[in-house]
């Protein structure tokens, strides 16, 4: 490859891939470590006379582009380059490392400080009302983000708030957006992602400051040595890192392209749903089947509106339907008792696995569950005071409540496709209304035609009478 061709390619490649020349790669060997900047690597390869070496370097970076791992391929392509470490690059790399760790720690505080701050606000009468609103806003996320962990829910909410972005309910990875031909923009939201990593053999060393630390052992070729189990298999462990990247829909061009419609949000669709006897029956049958629980609608004694129980080897939910009780109210009660059936379920021997939970905690959790899932059905439950009394207790750990409610919402949405059920219900009801309206219009047309016919017949009768009268007068005149 000629020098001018390689330089032109390198310049275009840096521009197109937005390569940061200040990024630093760390090369490890038996002699120690070297911190080399991307600028040093490009300068080195650019001034080489070996055209074959340039061609191999170019080929490696092009493969890295295809694999979406340019830096990884660049590392392997340049690790043998005899580039000396520069002090200014080393200092810059250490600064970048410090900033990276600071960013990770700043994000992690969102998962701890937010709990502590909200707990404090809930227990203070002056801030309890606004704190309860924050509590409800946060648990509402579970209906959309139940596929993300509780900590990731906290991270997403915290980062959106810090940037002044309103939560939309639609959050996806760059890969998922790209599959829908949607382009992302702006800084991503970082989340924890699991990753299996090799366990390396470690050794203790003393650095230049006399501080002892552990580093991976290296073999004679400068490569890290994997640790193996008794069967000779390389050990791996699951670790979580803040390397996952997702974008809220407001950080994409999905609305501009018309791929999504702001007015077709889950909330707007659910608000159109009418809770009919047939739909309530459909929901109850789905819950029965998915949770193996019997559901009965019947008049209950006193002021009781519903309860969950375990009797004679059967899990049962009873819902009051007396005095023409509103169907929306019956559904809200059904969701509350379903929360109990998931969160506080007794085992087949009748013992309560959740006996350590107070009645107040159970009720707060069940009502929080109903509040979240109710929104999926278009129900706005006034659960505030019902939940607040429990949350204000001094020994309450908010994270425990969040964790239990999150898991219950995830379970019901995993077993029942609520959003699809609601969409189908809305479509069915709209089509039924259209058919009814059409039928009514036909009836109006038929009635008008009948009225026209009646008017025509009346006119004919009048004409007949007039003809008869005229005929009589004519005959009288003839007789005269």
Shape: extended
Sheet with the most strands: spatial strand order: 3-7-4
What's the CATH first level of the domain at 279-413?
Mainly Alpha
Number of strands: 10
Give the proportion of residues in helices.
55-70%
Q: State Rg.
A: 36 Å
The proportion of strand residues reads 5-15%
CATH architecture of the domain at 279-413: Orthogonal Bundle
**Which sequence of SSEs, written as H and E, runs from N to C?**
HEEHHHHHHHEHEEEEHHHEEEHHHHH
How does the helix and strand content classify structurally?
A: alpha+beta
What's the pLDDT, averaged over the residues? 80
- The parts where pLDDT drops under 50 for at least 5 residues are 347-352, 474-480
CATH topology of the domain at 279-413: Arc Repressor Mutant, subunit A
Structure in words:
With 480 residues, this protein is of the alpha+beta class. Among the domains are: 3-85, no CATH class; 279-413, Orthogonal Bundle (Arc Repressor Mutant, subunit A); 417-480. 56% of the residues lie in helices and 14% in strands. It contains 17 helices and ten strands. The chain has helices spanning 3-16, 38-46, 51-66, 70-78, 87-123, 128-140, 142-145, 150-163, 174-179, 254-257, 266-271, 277-291, 327-343, 359-376, 384-391, 398-415, 418-479; strands spanning 24-29, 32-37, 171-173, 189-198, 202-206, 212-216, 236-248, 294-298, 306-311, 314-320. It has a three-stranded antiparallel β-sheet with strand order 3-7-4. Strand 5 and strand 6 (212-216) form a beta hairpin. Helix 5 (87-123) packs across helix 6. The longest helix has 62 residues, at 418-479. The termini are far apart. The model is unreliable at 347-352 and 474-480 (pLDDT under 50).
């Amino acid at each position: 490859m000629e020098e001018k061709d390689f330089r032109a390619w390198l310049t275009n490649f840096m521009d197109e891939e937005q390569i940061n020349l200040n990024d630093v790669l760390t090369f490890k060997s038996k002699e120690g470590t070297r911190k080399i900047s991307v600028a040093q690597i490009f300068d080195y390869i650019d001034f080489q006379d070996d055209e074959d070496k340039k061609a191999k370097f170019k080929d490696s970076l092009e493969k890295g582009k295809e694999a979406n791992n340019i830096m990884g391929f660049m590392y392997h392509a340049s690790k043998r380059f005899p580039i000396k470490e520069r002090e200014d690059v080393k200092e810059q790399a250490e600064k970048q490392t410090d900033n990276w760790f600071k960013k990770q720690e700043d994000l992690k505080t969102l998962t701890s400080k937010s709990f502590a701050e909200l707990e404090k606000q809930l227990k203070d009468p002056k801030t309890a009302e606004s704190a309860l609103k924050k509590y409800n806003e946060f648990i509402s996320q579970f209906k959309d983000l139940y596929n993300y962990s509780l900590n990731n829910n906290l991270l997403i909410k915290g980062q959106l708030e810090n940037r002044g972005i309103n939560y939309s309910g639609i959050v996806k990875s760059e890969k998922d957006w790209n599959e829908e031909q949607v382009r992302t923009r702006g800084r991503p939201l970082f989340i924890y992602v699991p990753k299996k990593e090799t366990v390396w053999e470690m050794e203790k060393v003393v650095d230049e400051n006399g501080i002892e630390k552990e580093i991976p052992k290296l073999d004679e070729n400068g490569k890290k040595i994997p640790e193996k189990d008794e069967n000779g298999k390389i050990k791996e462990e699951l670790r979580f890192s803040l390397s996952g990247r997702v974008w809220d829909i407001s950080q994409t061009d999905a609305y501009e392209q018309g791929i999504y419609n702001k007015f077709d949000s889950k909330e707007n669709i659910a608000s159109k749903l009418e809770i009919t006897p047939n739909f309530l029956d459909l929901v109850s049958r789905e819950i029965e089947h998915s949770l193996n629980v019997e559901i009965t609608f019947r008049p209950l004694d006193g002021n009781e509106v519903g309860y969950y129980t375990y009797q004679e080897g059967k899990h049962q939910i009873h819902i009051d339907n007396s005095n023409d009780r509103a169907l929306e109210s019956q559904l809200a009660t059904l969701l509350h008792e379903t929360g109990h059936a998931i969160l506080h379920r007794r085992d087949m021997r009748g013992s309560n696995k959740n006996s350590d939970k107070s009645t107040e905690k159970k009720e707060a959790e069940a009502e929080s569950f109903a509040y979240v899932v109710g929104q999926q059905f278009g129900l706005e439950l006034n659960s505030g005071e019902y939940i607040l009394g429990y949350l204000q207790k001094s020994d309450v750990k908010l994270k425990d409540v969040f964790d239990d409610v999150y898991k219950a919402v995830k379970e019901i949405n995993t077993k029942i496709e609520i959003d699809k059920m609601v969409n189908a219900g809305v479509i069915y009801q709209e089509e039924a209304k259209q058919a009814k309206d059409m039928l009514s219009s036909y009836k109006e047309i038929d009635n008008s035609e009948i009225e026209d016919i009646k008017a025509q017949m009346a006119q004919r009768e009048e004409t007949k009478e007039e003809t008869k009268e005229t005929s009589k007068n004519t005959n009288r005149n003839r007789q005269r």
